[in-house]
Design a protein that fits this description.
The chain has 127 residues and is α+β, with helices and mostly antiparallel strands. 21% of the residues lie in helices and 29% in strands. Helix 2 links the parallel strand 4 and strand 5.
């Protein structure tokens, strides 16, 4: 069973050595997504963790769709935040993207490139 690189149509290929997503069989791993418009590579939501989280989740959704999945297929997310004070705002924006059960999740506090407040990756299992 081969690994298949997933790059949503219209997105720029990353300049760093990573792929937007990898699918192998019924497993789809979405790479950590940040608040960047995937068609322009411009940052979105300067200083606003709510808007950045929404952009990140739109990016995750685009990779899931390109790999044949939806948020319903997501079993695990990892959230990386730069500031513990952003936890509640991130949660409010994050929950907008799920209906029913939420996936398992880990949240850690990290350093990200300047201006980025949140990064999220996702693991999906397809039928």
């Amino acid at each position: 069973m081969a690994k298949v690189a997933i790059h949503p149509e219209g997105t720029k290929i990353p300049t760093v050595p990573l792929t937007h997503g990898i699918r192998k069989g019924n497993i789809l791993q979405v790479a950590g997504q940040v608040a960047v418009d995937p068609t322009t590579n411009e940052r979105v939501g300067a200083g606003d963790v709510t808007e950045q989280t929404r952009q990140v989740m739109r990016n995750v959704r685009n990779v899931l769709a390109a790999g044949g999945a939806t948020f319903d297929d997501v079993v695990m997310c990892r959230v990386h935040l730069t500031d513990v004070a952003h936890f509640a705002e991130m949660n409010d924006a994050y929950r907008e993207f799920f209906e029913g059960s939420f996936p398992a999740r880990t949240t850690v506090y990290v350093g990200l490139p300047e201006g980025l407040l949140v990064e999220i990756d996702a693991l999906a299992v397809l039928e």
